[in-house]
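Quick one from the shared queue. A colleague (R.T.) flagged COG complex component COG2 C-terminal domain-containing protein as missing a structural entry in our internal table.

Convert sequence to structure tokens.
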Amino acid sequence: MAVFRRLTQLFSATKSFSFDLPIADPEPNLFHSAENDAVAASFMLFTLNCSTFFAKPGFYIEDLFMRDFYRTKGFVLGKMQLSTAAAKGEIAGSLDSALLVPIQISHSDKGTSQLLTLNQSATLLECLMSCWREDVLVLSCSDKFLRLSLRLISRYSHWVSAGLATRKAGNAGSTPGSEWAISAVPDDFIYIIHDLNCLAERICGDFLGHVVVLLSSSSSEVLDLVKQSILEGGVSLKDLIPEVINSIIQTVVEKSVEDLKQLKGITATYRMTNKPLPVRHSPYVSGVLRPLKTLLDGEQATAYLTRDIRNELVQGAALEITGRYYEFAADLVSVARKTESTLQRIRQGAQRRAGASSDVSDNNVSDTDVSDTDKICMQLFLDIQEYGRNLSALGVEAVKIPAFCSLWQVVAPTNRQNTISF
């Protein structure tokens, strides 16, 4: 009985001591996939020896047995857990360091669409592969490395989404680490789109296959969960692409609006002047879609944008720019008509005060006279025809854009309103 009481004391003392260690005892189910792991063997031997010791308490020298066992157990588990924690910290720190610096190009082979273009993206992939290297991975802790892999993907996703939100808000201090997006140019976002696609393909392809091979001894249920979690991580990266495209579109639209503001000069050109009806489009029209065309013809877009993404970018930008075009033009025509109506009433009032008859007033206006508003509308009509031709050159059907059809109705002559052609 004295020996048994001593054993109980040793168990109690050792248990309390274990809480002072930087690690806790692993759960038994962590070892289910590590048949040849030394730690698993130690755990199983300890269970067997303890059972024997309780059955025959006088068989062992308790102090020597327990001292040697806990020394061995603490050394093996401590080394394993501390090594795992250090590896995880080093891997996570590498990605965090990469995400804290401005966007950097990771290679010089321009036009090579199979390579990741940004240092941040390349670092993510390197970190993911490091989690599952043979000299780093501890199979008994594979669940921890899986969680780390998913957190790395999530960290990269947050870096992209936070940057986009910061750029939209225009506040660099809103989210630490997102300052890069404020100074980023559209070409930088093209790199990001390309890398998001590449990362998703690599994660859901080669990376997933590598992990499954390493965990092949696990049950099918475990493997299914691993596949599902990694695939969801890859999909989460692709889900960011529409947001990045929209950020590019907004930048292009802002540049196009600068040219659209020149519409205001049309009023000054024809208001209270004797200029005849215009016969050609305004010079500003050629600049409205120039930012979009310049982007599409650029080296980065040519090398890294897929056909589908390129089409989505063109259609989205055309829709937004045409919408702003309609707003500017419709407002211009509305103001012109209100101004003309006001001037008309002023002239009529002046004529009445002067005693002029309405017959004389009517005779002073020829049937062939054209109002200033008519001239403004004709100029806008010629402009949107040229704009429609420029859209067609980019592969966009203007008649399928509601704002273009509405604009046509506002400025087209009566005999041309039912048919859109240019």
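The two ends are 105 Å apart (CA to CA).
Residues 1-62, 69-80, 108-112, 358-368 have pLDDT under 50 and may be disordered.
Added to the table.
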